[in-house]
Amino acid sequence: MALETGSFISDLNSSNPQSTDSVSQADDHIRLIKSTVKATFPNVTGAVTKTHSQINDLLEKAGGTMTGALTLSGAPSSNLHAATKAYVDTADAGKVDTTRTITAGTGLSGGGTLAADRTISVASGGIGTTQLADGGVSTAKIADGAVTALKLAEPLTIAVAQATTSGTSKDFNDIPSWVSRITVVFNNVSLNSTGDIAVQIGDSGGIENTGYTSSCTNSFSGSTLSSGFLVKMSNVDFAISGSMTLHNISGNIWVASVAGCTTNATYAAVVGGGRKELTATLDRLRVLSVDGTGTFDSGSVTIFYE
What we know:
Strand content: 25-35%
CATH class of the domain at 158-305: Mainly Beta
CATH topology of the domain at 158-305: Jelly Rolls
Radius of gyration: 49 Å
CATH architecture of the domain at 158-305: Sandwich
């Protein structure tokens, strides 16, 4: 009797049993069929209700074409999850089509599609009287009297004042880096000694007390000073009123000019000047007694910077 061996349905020989085989071996064929069926479908523990057509149409793991809609359980929670239409629609909402364009108006440049970053700039000579036509700028944007021809012509000026009624020096710190002119105004300033007054400037490294080329004279005598810009006093009875103007000539070079008068009629006029190059941008200024022992005892010092 012909009896094959096999583990799965595919191993069965459809020609067996043959017509000449004895009936006594029929149980061997039945056992072989049962064992191969169970080995082929090891996880089938209930009725299989799908038709052969449905089973034949199952989508392959490697991919295939679906003929109907697929409903997902929800929005994706991992990068490799499939996304629902609602999820994509929500994520896409508010996004601007990259074919949309930004048009640079008159006097501007830099327009184009949103397929790339765009920078809108004012073209050379781009703003003219046609852009500032009547009604283009309203008083709602600029209040009445806020901008005048005089104010546009004036430099930005900031004043800082200190009383000079005590101490041997007065410091003015945190002067902005954009300052190009400083005016130091002396209002009836005096010392309790016969010494002179000086102005020193400095940068982030501190006040500098060397490298000055400075001279000043009153109606009686004159002197030079290398530790600061000199303001000639020379008498305990003098009080000075006047100003020292510092101009930033180029880089960190500052030039000073002094003009004032004292309360002594004989030595009234005070004039002088000087030059100093700092190592960095000016950001501080000091008014002091030159000998370091004379103490301020009257008046005030105000600095104006612009």
